[in-house]
Amino acid sequence: MIKTLKRLGAYMGGRKWLLPCSVGLSAVHGLLALVPFVLLWLVVRTLLTAEGNLAQTPLWDYALAAFVVSVAGVALYFVVLMCSHLAAFRVETNMRRRAMERLMRAPLGFFDTQSTGRMRKIIDEDSAQTHTFLAHILPDVAGSVVAPIGVIVLLLAVDWQLGLASMLPIVGAFAIMGYMTNPKNNDFQRLYLDAQEKMSAEAVEYVRGIPVVKVFQQTVFSFKRFYNSIINYRDLVIQYTLQWRSPMSGYIVAINAFAFVLVPVGILLMAHGSRPSVVVADVVLYVLIAPVISGNIMKMMYLSQNLFMANEAVERLERLTSVVPLPESATPKTAESFDIRLEQVSFRYEGAERDAVSHISLTIPEGKTVALVGASGSGKTTIARLIPRFWDVREGCVRIGGIDVRQIDRGELMRNISFVFQNTRLFKTSILENVRYGSPDATIEQVNCAIDLSQSREIIDRLPQGLHTVIGSEGTYLSGGEQQRIVLARALLKNAPIVVLDEATAFADPENEHLIRQALSHLTRGKTVLMIAHRLTTVRDADNIVVVDGGKIVEQGTHDELMALQAHYYKMWNEYQKSVAWKL
Ligand code: ADP
Ligand code: MG
Hints:
Elements: H1 2-9, H2 18-32, H3 35-49, H4 59-105, H5 116-158, H6 160-181, H7 188-215, H8 220-243, H9 245-255, H10 258-271, H11 276-289, H12 291-320, E1 340-347, E2 357-364, E3 369-373, H13 380-386, E4 395-400, E5 403-404, H14 410-416, E6 417-420, H15 431-436, H16 444-453, H17 457-462, H18 480-494, E7 498-502, H19 510-524, E8 528-532, H20 536-539, E9 544-549, E10 552-557, H21 559-565, H22 568-583
Parallel strand pairs: 3-8, 3-9, 6-7, 7-8
Antiparallel strand pairs: 1-2, 1-4, 4-5, 9-10
C-alpha cells in the first residue's frame, strides 16, 4: 500500500499535500457523519424522558445542530473529493506526459518492437486506471476505517452492556468475512480470470475467423470452442455463487442481527432496574448507527482490488517507458559534407543470439547512389536504419561527412536525412499538413511544386477539397501507391541532402510504380542515396550495388561488374528475370 502510494506520489508534482489532506478530511468526515445519529439519539431520549416539560429541553438546539452538522458534512465531503480529484488528475496527466516525453526520446527502432495498440492502452487506460483509486477509493477508505471504529467506541461508551451485546453480531460477521476472503479458501479469483481471458481470446479468434468460416460455409463447429469457453465461464460463476450462498447469507444475517440481540438485552436491563425510557432511547441509537459498520466494510473490500490494479497500471507504464534513450553528445558537431561511411559496423538486436549485421564497411560518396540487395532477412533494413540512429551500432561506427552520427545533434541528423519506408503512414489530417510535416514553414508554392514532382497532382485534382482534403474523411482513402506518392512529396519538400529508401516501391501496382519511380528520380537527383529495392531493375543504374547475405557484404560493384563476376548478383538477376517473365 505504502509502496504503491509512493510510486503514485512521484507523479504528484509540487502539490503532495493534496492527497494526505483529502484522506485526513475524509476521516474527519467519517466521524462527523456519526454526530447527527448522536443528536437524534439525544432528541429521542429527551422526548422519552422529558415527561411533558418539552419547553425546558434543548430539543431545538439538537435539531439545529444536527442540521448544521449534516450540511457541514456535505461541504466537507465536497472538499475531500475536490482535493482527491485534483491529486488524481495531476497524477493521471503527469503519468501521460512523462510517458510521452520518454517515448519521444526512445530510439526510433524501439517502436518496431511495440504494438501501437498496446502502447496506446498503457499510456491512456492505465493512467486513467489510477484515477478511480486516488480520487474515490482512497479517501472513501479513510472514512470507512474511521467510521466503524467511531461507532464501536460510541456503542461501548453510551452503555457498555448494550455495547458488548451489539459486538456479538459484529464479531460473527467479521469471522465469516475473514473466512470468505481468506486466500486459502479461494483460488476462485485465478480460475475466474483464466476463464475470462480464455473467453476473450476465443472471441477474438472467432471474430477474426468469420471470413474464413463464411467462405468455407462452416457454422456450428467453428462456434464450438467459443461456445465452450462461454459455458465454462458460466458454470464457474454459478458454482462460485452457489458455494458462497451460505456464508454470504450468514454474513448478511449477522451484520444485521442487532435488533435480535439488543431487544432481549434491553429487556434484561429493564428487568434489572434500568429506566425503560433510557434503554429504549439507547436501543434506538444502536439500531440506527450499527448499519454504518456493514456499509463501510463493503467499501474497504474494494480497496485491495483497486490498489492492486493501480499498482499494476503504474508498473506497466514504467516498464514501457523504461527504455533507455540513445545518448546525446554534449558537444555536438555539424556535418559539413554528406558522404556516408560505415566502418566495420556490427549490430545485434536486443535478445538476439547473433549479430543482425556484422563488420559492414561501405561508403556512399556525396551525390552518389548505393543500392543494397539481398534475400529477405539478410540485414538490409538494419544497415539502412543505423544511419539515422534508429539504434546505435554495437561495434564500429557510422559517419556522415566524416563525423560519427553519435556526435551529430539529433535534430540536425533528422533534418539531413529523408527516410522513406515501404509502408510510411499518412496522418489523419489534410494533405497539405501531411506534406508540410517535415518543413512547416514551406510556402504553398513550394508545396505545390513538391506535389507536381511527386506525380501527385492528379490525386489532388480528384479530391473534393484539393490540398485541404482530410485523409480518411468522407471516403477519401488513398491506395498504397497513392499514399506513397504523397509521402514522397513530403520528402521532396524536406529536400534533405541524404535520402534513404527502404523498399519504397514494394507495394505499388504497375501503374503506380511508374509514377513512383518518376517521383523517386526527382527526389534523389544530386542527393546522397542509399536504396534498398526488391525489384532489381530499380537498382540497375546505381553507382554501386552492395550484395548482402546473412548480415555480411558478399560482393559489390556496378551492375556490369557484378554480372561479369557470375556469382551472387548474377544468380539473383537471372532469377529475377525469370520471375518477371513468369508474371508477363
Ligand atoms: P532485410 O531488410 O534484409 O529483410 P532486416 O534488416 O529486416 O533484413 O533483418 C535482419 C535480421 O534481423 C533478420 O534476421 C531479422 O529477423 C532480424 N530483425 C530485424 N528487425 C528486428 C527487430 N526489431 N528485433 C529483432 N530482430 C530483428
Ligand atoms: Mg527490409
